[in-house]
Write a structure and sequence with these properties.
By secondary structure, the chain is an alpha/beta fold. Helices cover 53% and strands 8% of the residues. It has helices at 2-16, 20-33, 38-50, 54-67, 72-84, 88-101, 106-118, 122-135, 140-152, 156-169, 174-186, 190-203, 208-220, 224-230, 238-243, 272-287, 301-307, 335-342, 360-374, 392-395, 403-406, 430-437, 451-459, 470-477, 520-537; strands at 263-267, 291-296, 312-315, 329-334, 379-383, 412-415, 439-440, 463-467, 482-485, 509-512. Helix 10 runs antiparallel to helix 11 (174-186), helix 11 runs parallel beside helix 13 (208-220) and helix 16 packs across helix 18 (335-342). It is globular. The model is unreliable at 421-428 (pLDDT under 50).
Length: 539
């Protein structure tokens, strides 16, 4: 028995030393004598998990669970393995299983908080952190996660209190500095924000989040030189990893070299709105005579192919389209990475009124349909929501916020918002349904999947009023007069820059800025005042 205890202690030590294969060997020696020993099976599974063998680890954990279903740590390890495999429903079931065995498991509540954050269920994340803290009031990481969730919910004062408490308990939690930096940036305290990011980097120079947030802080102020010096860290942040990945292209990365005789592969990144915005760079390069191959979201292929005559436009697939392996490709670049070479300063942005072109026949047909409903009134397209799950709390308005605008009778309003986004409108009562009824729509048009159709619908409008989302980018790129109601603070993407009412990306866009989080009413009120003058000009 003493020998088995020594082997077990040795396996534990080997895991701590990251010698996972040796730890598994030690566990196997024990299991030769005690084949179904649950603690040893659990430890063996942990060694396999830490070594990256998730499926093997799950098999081993399940053997352990069969031997002792009352061992909380087995449930927790099964949950962590499933979480790391992105099997979130199974992970949640395992963490709840841990709580069923031990309702006082702090770790189970904490892991459920982490899981809720991955699913962008920030209120749920806060609740689980509070449960963990009720059991262990000095749990620094629970305060840190709760602080981040509160930041993403726009509850900034509560977030600051939680983050400062986490920092007092453990001053080496990197995300705490990152989130404190974002809170400082929300308040316009650039120096303090950078100091927080720098503190995290001083603790861990490889911490991508703070490098990226430093880059965004500079880019938001139009400092491209300092911003792009650290912007490549975006590929290593959790936020980017959930929205886009580096493409497996083997051609050299373009660093601004002159392109003589070879082709440039330009590929989209981040969200579809970003691809629309950054397709402006493809137009710039085309105008300079560059032979382009553009890889983009499949939904944009028709629109970009029409707008970039002479370029080869292909949809993003895995494995990539064969055109991306063209032997004449000299360089490849992510779209945002190309910005620093194509438009190295704000002064380098061309005054191009539009760079995308909608299908003229579809636009005409839609315009005729909408004009029949408008009875001579100007046609105004509205979009009030974002489908970005991480930022939608800060970027999405309620339908009720638009009520003063929709009650006007001197314009015909058209819905540019996905219909299912309003699935909860009925719960708002008759007022919300009445507001929806005032919004015209074009039948049988999928506003999310058929982006070429959405482009035609937008082009058929006289004016678009939108929050910061794909619709706003598309309208600006099409050259349609567009008013964009921006979110507050860190919810506001850097490319809207600071303190501007215009957009260097889109000459047809006018920007409205809030003074605080969720202050949509004031922006809508200003838009109504501006609409009075605009409608007069349309007569």
């Amino acid at each position: 028995m003493a020998q088995l205890e020594q082997l077990y202690a040795r396996a534990v030590a080997l895991i701590g030393e990251r010698q996972f294969e040796a730890a598994e060997v030690a566990c196997r020696e024990i299991l030769k004598l005690l084949p179904n020993h649950p603690d040893t099976l659990n430890l063996q599974g942990l060694a396999q998990l830490r070594a990256g063998h998730h499926k093997r680890a799950l098999t081993t954990f399940n053997r352990a669970l069969k031997s002792n279903p009352r061992l909380t740590s087995i449930h927790l390890n099964i949950g962590i393995a499933n979480f790391e495999m992105d099997q979130l429903a199974d992970a949640k079931a395992a963490f709840i299983g841990a709580l069923n065995v031990d309702p006082g498991s702090v770790e189970a509540h904490f892991q459920l908080a982490i899981l809720a954050m991955r699913q962008f269920k920030f209120e749920e994340g806060v609740a689980h952190c509070r449960d963990a803290l009720a059991l262990q009031p000095d749990h620094a990481f629970a305060y840190a996660v709760m602080g981040e969730a509160l930041v993403l919910l726009g509850r900034f004062d509560e977030a600051r209190a939680a983050l400062e408490r986490a920092n007092a308990l453990n001053p080496r939690i990197l995300n705490v500095y990152d989130n404190l930096g974002m809170l400082a940036e929300n308040e316009g305290r650039e120096t303090d924000a950078l100091a927080h990011f720098d503190k995290a980097i001083s603790i861990d120079p490889t911490f991508a989040g703070s490098h990226f947030n430093r880059a965004v802080t500079f880019l938001r102020r139009g400092n491209f030189e300092l911003g792009f010096a650290e912007y490549d860290w975006r590929w290593r942040t959790a936020r980017t990893a959930q929205s886009t990945k580096l493409r497996p292209f083997t051609q050299p990365a373009w660093q601004g070299e002159k392109l003589v005789g070879g082709k440039l592969l330009l590929w989209g990144e981040q969200g579809v709105g970003d691809e629309i915005r950054l397709s402006a760079l493809a137009c710039d390069l085309r105008d300079r005579g560059v032979d382009l191959i553009v890889e983009c979201d499949k939904r944009l292929v028709k629109l970009l192919a029409r707008s970039l005559p002479g370029a080869t436009v292909v949809g993003r697939t895995d494995p990539p389209h064969r055109a991306t392996a063209d032997s004449e490709i000299a360089f490849q670049s992510a779209m945002e990475s190309a910005l620093q070479f194509v438009r190295p300063t704000l002064n380098a942005f061309p005054k191009r009124q539009k760079y995308l072109s909608a299908d003229p026949e579809r636009t005409q047909a839609i315009r005729q349909h909408l004009a029949a409903q408008a009875h001579g009134k100007p046609i105004i397209g509205l979009s009030w929501g974002s489908y970005n799950p991480q930022l939608s709390v800060g970027k999405t308005t309620s339908l009720g916020a638009w009520a003063p605008l929709l009650q006007r009778d001197d314009a015909s309003f058209v819905r540019l918002q996905k219909v299912s986004k309003d699935a909860d409108a009925a719960s708002l009562g008759s007022e919300a349904r009445a507001l929806l009824d005032r919004l015209g729509q074009f039948p049988n048009l999928d506003l999310v999947q058929d982006l070429d159709g959405l482009a035609a619908l937008i082009s058929a409008c006289d004016l678009v009023i939108s929050v910061s989302n794909t619709t706003a980018h598309l309208a600006g790129a099409l050259g349609v007069p567009t008013w964009v109601l921006l979110p507050f603070g860190h919810f506001q993407p850097w490319y809207w820059f600071k303190n501007r009412t215009d957009s260097p990306w889109y000459p047809s866009v006018k920007v409205y800025r809030p003074k605080g989080f969720g202050e949509w009413d004031a922006m809508v009120a200003q838009a109504i005042i501006d609409l009075d003058a605009w409608t007069q000009s349309q007569r």
